[in-house]
Amino acid sequence: MELVERPTPVCGSRDVLIRVHHAGVCGTDLHIWEWDSWASNRLRPPVTIGHEFAGEIVELGNEARAEGLLAIGDLVTAEGHIICGHCVPCRTGHGHLCVRTSIIGVDRDGAFADYISMPVSNVMKLDGIPTDVGAIMDPIGNGVHTALEGGDITGCTALVLGCGPIGCFAVGVLRAAGASLVLASDFNPFRRDLATKMGAHYSFDPAKDDVVARVKELTGGIGVDLVCEMSGHPDGHVQAFRAARPGGRVNMLGTPSRTTEVDFARDIIFKGLTLYGVTGRKMYTTWIQMTRLLRSGQFDPRPVVTHRFPLDRIADAIGVIKGGSAGKVILDIAS
Ligand SMILES: [Zn+2]
Ligand SMILES: [Zn+2]
Asked: Structure pTM?
C-alpha cells in the first residue's frame, strides 16, 4: 500500500464526483495493509482503498444533474456497497445482500484519495451532519443495523460482545433507542472504557469475569433480550447464545476466522432463539434511522473517534489501530 498520483476518477452520466473531506480507517483496511489471505484473494491491485468517507460534490454527470436532487457544493456521504438492482435479494428489498455487490475501496476505487466517483443512487446529503461524522456513517450504520434489527428496544436488556468502534456505536444506539440495561464485554480495557463513555451500564472483562454469570445476575437470572455479537471471537458465539434469554435474539456481526462449536439443541432450539446475520447496512432503512438519530442529537458517535491523521500518515493511522489503544481513526484529507 503506497501513496501515489492517480488520475481524477471519471464521473459517468449517472455518477457524482466528490472531493473527499474525511475518510474513516477500518479493520478492512488493516486486512488489506497486512495483505492477509482474504485481501490477497479478493483485491485486484492497483486499487485505491478506503470505503468510509464524506465530502463535497464537485461534479454531476448529465443524468445525475437532470434528477435535480443533488447539486455542486452539497456535503454528502455514500453507501459504499454498489448493488445490481436485478438479483432476487435486490428485488425483494434486501439490497444489502446483493449477489453482485461491488465494494468501494475493495472491488473498485475508493476514498483514500482527493476524489471519488459514486453512483448518484448511493449518495446521501448530510443536511447538517458534520463531514467528520458523515465519514464514519458506514460503520455507525453497521452498529445501527445490529442494534435495531428485530425492533422492541424500548425497555429491553442488551449485551454487546466486542467493543471495537462498531460495538461502541451499537451501545450508544441501544441507549438512544431506550434500552433499560446495556452490558458490554471486551478483553481490551481501553475499549471497555469507550463503551462506558457511550453509555454501557456495566462492562466485563472476559479474561476475568464469567460474562454469562454476570449477565444472569443483572437480569434476574434469565439473560438479556438481545445480544449483539460484534467480537467475532469463537468464544463469543457460545457466550452470546448462553447470555440471551429464552425467546431472545442474537444479532451477529463479528466474523470469526474459523468455524465454532455450538450446542444447537441446548443453546438455540430449546431456547427458541432468533439469530440474525448482519451484513452492511439495510438500503436504505438503516441510513434513514441513522440520519434521524444523528440529526436529532439523540446519538453522538464522537466519543468513539480517538485519532485523526492526514492522508500521508496512513501508516501511523494503521499503527494506532494495530496497537489496540484506538477507537475510530479518521483521515483528514481536505476541508
Ligand atoms: Zn469499514
Ligand atoms: Zn443484486
From this structure: 0.97
15-136+301-332 folds as Quinone Oxidoreductase; Chain A, domain 1 (3.90.180)
Terminal-residue alpha carbon distance, the chain:
24
Relative to the alpha carbon of 82, which ligand is closest?
Answer: 2
Instruction: Compute the distance from residue 92 Cα to the ligand 2 centre, in Å.
Output: 10
| Spatial contact of 225 and 249, defined as CB atoms under 8 Å apart | yes
Please state the CATH superfamily assignment of the domain spanning residues 141-277 in this structure. NAD(P)-binding Rossmann-like Domain (3.40.50.720)
Please say if 31 is a catalytic residue: yes
Select from 135, 121, 5 the least CA-distant residue to 61: 121
Residue 304's pLDDT band, with cuts at 50, 70 and 90, is: very high
Residue 200 Cα, ligand 1 centroid: separation in angstroms? Answer: 23
How many angstroms is it from 101 CA to the middle of ligand 2?
Answer: 7
The string of pLDDT tens digits covering residues 63-117 is: 999 999 999 999 999 999 999 999 999 999 999 999 999 999 999 999 999 999 9
